[in-house]
Amino acid sequence: MNRALRTIAVLAVALVVFGPLGLIFYQSFLSEAFFSPTARFSLGAYQYVLAVSGFLSAFGTSLVVSLGMTLISVPLGSVLAFLLARTDLPWKKFLEPWLLVPIFLSPVVLAFGYVVAVGPVGFFSLWVKALLGRVPWNLYSLYGMILIAGLTHVPHAFLYVSSALRTLDPSVEEAARVAGAGPWRIAATVSLPLVFPSVLFSASLIFLLGFELFGLPLVLGDPAGLLVLTTYLYKLTNLLGVPSYHLMAVVALSIVALTFPLVYAQRRMLRTAGRFAVIGGKGQAFRPLPLGVLRWPAVAIVLLWLAVTVLLPLIGVGLRSVVSQWGEGIKISEVLTLDHFRELTGYPNLVRGVLNTLLIGAVGGALSVLFYAAIGLAAHRWQSRWITLLDYLVMLPRALPGLIVGLAFLWVFLFFKPIAPLRTTLVSLWVAYTVVWLAYGLRLISASLLQVKPELEEAARVTGARQSLVYRDVTLPLIRFGLIGSWLLIFMMFVREYSTGVYLLGPGTEVIGSLIVSLWGTGALDLISALSVIEVALVGLMLFIALRLGVRLDA
Amino acid sequence: MRDLIVQNIEKQLGAAQVLSGVSFELENGEVLALLGASGSGKTTLLRSVAGLERPDKGKIEIRGTVVFDAASGFEIPAEQRGLGLVFQSYAIWPHRSVFENVAYGLRLRHAPDAEIRQKVGDVLARLGLDHLADRYAHQLSGGQQQRVALARAIVYNPPVLLLDEPLSNLDAKLREDARAWLRELIKQTGNSALYVTHDQTEALAIADRVLLLDRGQIQQDGTPQEIYGRPTSQFAAEFMGSNNRFEGKVGEVADGRARLEGDGWSLWGKLQGKKVRGASGVGLIRVERLHLADAGGENHLKMQLKSALYLGERWEYLLQLGELRLRVWGEEQRAPGEYWLAIPQDSLWIF
């Protein structure tokens, strides 16, 4: 690949990242929608958002939720990481993939699952009420939202902390053990402090994800009247009764203004973390730390977390999808039915949604992986200032919640007449998905490319192959399994995606995720539960295939 | 015609000057070893010739064709230089069989299938790999992988074969065998070779000529005998072999020789470079040049034997006289005590 092609690849990324962002920026300084003939330059939108509406209270709620969930998920995730990465915890092989499952489940499905499982009239709530005479918790509260957000984000902490722990030289723990420390003391005084940069990194990541939460606060916060930044943005149209693009742009920009510094800080941290990781040598024989009698309490902690975070909501969704109605005094055995799935086939848009989800996951996912691979190869072993630009470009979408990227692309497809007909096709959705998952996808690709030793490519060059042949004959064949793995992971991410499609939702662009969001407003619990079961089944199937193929989930 | 002409190559990597003005030529059919410690720039030099690194200054010519010239900014990319390179890690493509690894260079040159089968078959047979043609890298031993890498690099008959520490990943025993047949093989092809190594024995055994590199500069360029036996600098003298090194003051100086004096001893040796009486000097002598003598004589010292270490094929004695400590090799076990030590004048270099 020559310089020109590489440069074009970087510019293509710049276009898809800056295009929508620029449009939001432009819109925020207008008095009306950008396509309105009477729109003119104005700071009114900023004044309005900051002064009149509930923006500041939504910001406050977002901050509290972010902090709270970070305080729950980081300690818990670190402990789980220590148990799985360093100790002889029983059933480790079996438990490990399950720990990452929440990453692949749609938050809106999980949130819905909690509502039907432990909401005011949830299955478990009513059983507990029958036993105790009352329900000792309230799901629709700030605390409920924080707790569930915290529990479902444990995998993100687990991921980063455990991968750092795995590089740790076991002898530093053995030294503490010989000196007389028990497993918990070793974790608290040796292992976790040694990987502190990774703990800190995961904390900042989860704090960032807190500002991008949408599904959980939409489902759990709404009934209690709690709005966070994203749900505030989503509700803005309803609040005013008219689509107020300039106000939405200001809120969207304010979210980006909050998240971008966090992403930038993370980049800096990752560099320090890399330096820190030198303490451990690779190729160390892994010698697990014996937990002794503590192994059973340790397993209990892991299982309890799994039960509350994965099983509880999934059982809720599953049960809800096969009962005709639910409330106090109803016996499950009397209301069992498959009607909801039958009912689903009566709605053409829902049927299209299921098919579209499959299509965008399988075909769109494959195309996205090809796009990411093209960018990855363009950047591969290229020493140039363009690479620095690319690094920063890739950071940007990470600071953009899917909701905002979807909104931006809706505008792009409205604004540029030549591509306007594509707005009502899956193409618009695919472009938005590809940008939202750009950083993740490129990380998958570059993880594969890192496995290719430079000599293998140099050998081909010296033998007489030009760059494009080196890629065709050496690099691509060597990363083919990595590409298949990336496709499976992207497939799952695209299937579970919900927020990006919210604004682009229309006839022709329905997908399960955004349909659930829009159905939530109408209270069609039967249909939501049936759609959720279909989505979970799809993701579960892909997950099963990925695990059978030995795809690493912890990319 | 020379196979390779390298002129005044300079290369900076970050803050470090890796190569500072290296020039050499490679005659047709000659095996040249680039010898140096890690960080001496030898691998960078090899990679510059291959076209995998771009030097900051200098010029490289292969068989009369300029492939790199910093002055005009001209550069022929690695894939068009037609060279063969054997990597330290072998770099066997794991997704291709042995046959396809070796055949790749011929396929890129659009050789007909029949010719490819014949040439690859020949080279595999010559390297004793013919029964492994369908295997993959992970099914091969280290020695076999090394030979596949070599077969891949020589099959299309490159004008210059480049080898980057090709034996360093082999077991010690295997490495000694490989030295002999590798030299024989390179000589058979009739093409010249540039051989990078940090192992001096390997360099001396394999090469017709050795280029000793230190911190990006050529310290000495000569035959193996010259490099080992007639070092032109203190660095070259100390780098090669196993040495005794001691400091003293220069006493008498006479026709290329000098007397080095210390506390309770004085020894004649060959003066390397210029020294005047009273200057401080460093004496260097290869350990194998010293031996214990039955009686005193010219350039003999009476020294105290402190200890004798058993090294398997020989003994090493540690002798002391005041501050002067020397290591000496011998055949038998010796008890501590006083011994005469013979120091041949011609073997003691004074720098």
Helical content band of chain B: 10-25%
H and E order of chain B: EEEHEEEEHHHEHEHEEHHEEEEEEEEEE
Mind telling me which CATH architecture of the largest domain in chain B this is?
A: 3-Layer(aba) Sandwich
Low-confidence stretches of chain B: none
Measured by DSSP, the beta-strand proportion of chain B falls in 35-45%
Strand content of chain A: under 5%
Helix content of chain A: over 70%
Model regions low in confidence, pLDDT < 50 over at least 5 residues of chain A: 275-283
* CATH level 1 name of the largest domain in chain B: Alpha Beta
Largest chain-chain contact?
A-B, 17 and 27 residues
Question: Would you report the number of β strands of chain B?
Answer: 21
Might you state the CATH topology name of the largest domain in chain B?
Answer: Rossmann fold
The helix-and-strand class of chain B reads: alpha+beta
Shape of chain A: globular
Task: Give an overview in words.
With about 550 residues, chain A is mainly alpha-helical. Chain A is built from 27 helices and no strands. In chain A, helix 1 crosses helix 18, helix 3 runs parallel beside helix 8 and helix 18 crosses helix 21. Chain B is of the alpha+beta class. Chain B folds into 2 domains: about 230 residues, 3-Layer(aba) Sandwich (Rossmann fold); about 110 residues, Nucleic acid-binding proteins (OB fold (Dihydrolipoamide Acetyltransferase, E2P), Beta Barrel), CATH 2.40.50. Chain B contains 8 helices and 21 strands. At the A-B interface, helix 23 and helix 24 of A face helix 2 of B.
